[in-house]
Amino acid sequence: MSELAPSILSADFTHLGEQLHTLEKSGTKVLHIDVMDGAFVPSISFGMPVIRSIRKDCGMFFDVHLMIQEPVRYIREFVEAGADSITVHVEACSDIQKTIDEMKQYRIKVALSVNPATGVDAVLPYLDQIDMVLVMGVEPGFGGQKLIPQTLEKVKELDRLRKEKGLSYQIELDGGVNRENLTKIIEHGTDIAVAGTAVFRGNIRENVRDLQEVIAGA
Ligand code: DX5
Ligand code: ZN
């Protein structure tokens, strides 16, 4: 069954601890953590201190999405801060293989991400080395955007490729996920659906329950 990964980018940071407890109590297993550097994307979010701090009191799987230039420079620090998986953007790496090799030094899941304008061919040479591909459903940088429907074709293509090649990488779709489009997202082959606004706007417990219901019914 597919998994919901709430993105803390949309959390209320004055109540972050409580909100994480609510997620955990609601059955959330994967927490999506968006790191932005103001260079690869226009916005800046947060970094290691926040991750290190929430790690102390949180048993969820930390799915760290690095929207930063040359992430190879910071892999060790994010591992030490508590990442369970790290996703880097192919567009942000001058040497993708070197970045994968660096990630493979640690006991983490290794993932590559593609922006809406980047084709699946950019990750093709690495599919047999990685644990996950993150397909951006919106331009990276901000929560609350609308899913670009064509990005689902890449999810479908990646699903087809893994069957064809006998590979087992997971497919994550990030951006614009809501109650209405989640079934379609899963039907295209998504294993992990990231949701920021759809989880944190309004009642978190109810939102998670509703989204998990959609997943269970898909
Ligand atoms: C966007 C981030 C997403 C974002 C999703 O750059 O990578 O994870 O938080 O937010 P929503 O679900 O609001 O589109
Ligand atoms: Zn993300």
From TrEMBL:
The keyword Metal-binding applies. InterPro entries: Aldolase_TIM, Ribul_P_3_epim, Ribul_P_3_epim-like, RibuloseP-bd_barrel. Its cofactor is a divalent metal cation; Zn(2+); Fe(2+); Mn(2+). The gene is rpe. It catalyses: D-ribulose 5-phosphate = D-xylulose 5-phosphate. Belongs to the ribulose-phosphate 3-epimerase family. This is Ribulose-phosphate 3-epimerase. GO terms for molecular function: D-ribulose-phosphate 3-epimerase activity. Pfam families: Ribul_P_3_epim (PF00834). A divalent metal cation binds at residues 32, 34, 65, 174. It comes from Jutongia huaianensis. Binds 1 divalent metal cation per subunit. Pathway: Carbohydrate degradation. The active site is at 34 (proton acceptor), 174 (proton donor). Coiled coil: none annotated. Keywords: Carbohydrate metabolism, Isomerase, Metal-binding. Catalyzes the reversible epimerization of D-ribulose 5-phosphate to D-xylulose 5-phosphate. Substrate binds at residues 7, 65, 141-144, 174-176. Its EC number is 5.1.3.1.
